[in-house]
Design goal:
Order of helices and strands: HEEHEH
Largest sheet: 3 strands, parallel
Structural class: alpha/beta
Strand content: 5-15%
Number of helices: 3
CATH architecture: 3-Layer(aba) Sandwich
Helix content: 25-40%
CATH topology: Alpha/beta knot
Distance between the termini: 21 Å
CATH superfamily: SPOUT methyltransferase, trefoil knot domain
CATH class: Alpha Beta
Radius of gyration: 14 Å
Strand order of the largest sheet: 2-1-3
Oligomer: single chain
């Protein structure tokens, strides 16, 4: 079974409520942004983090990006501008797992 059946899902909060919830719990908020100057492997994923992904069609708005604490990009080769949101999330979560692999983080 997929993780959707094992993870709690929060329905209905506004973007601002979600950012506030993360800030109250000292979670760094990191959004995917094709224009970010920080590469995904330069971010510190060893910190407690909330990954924010926007819709595939247009991504996050400039206001949404500004509310997040950090933004990262996945460097691309060739003419492709971006990845499918599921693939991009997989790349970012893999990097987080790679950085955490030597730590005792649960």
């Amino acid at each position: 079974m997929g993780s959707a059946f094992r993870l709690p899902i929060w329905f209905g909060p506004s973007y601002e409520e979600m950012i506030e919830w993360c800030n109250e719990r000292n979670l760094q908020t990191v959004c995917a942004n094709v224009r970010s100057t920080l590469s995904h492997d330069e971010a510190d994923w060893t910190l407690p983090s909330a990954l924010i992904m926007g819709p595939e069609s247009e991504g996050l708005s400039e206001d949404e990006i500004a509310l997040a604490g950090n933004s990262v990009r996945i460097p691309m080769q060739g003419a492709a501008e971006s990845l499918n949101v599921a693939v991009a999330a997989g790349v970012l979560l893999y990097e987080a797992a790679r950085q955490r692999s030597h730590l005792d983080i649960k």
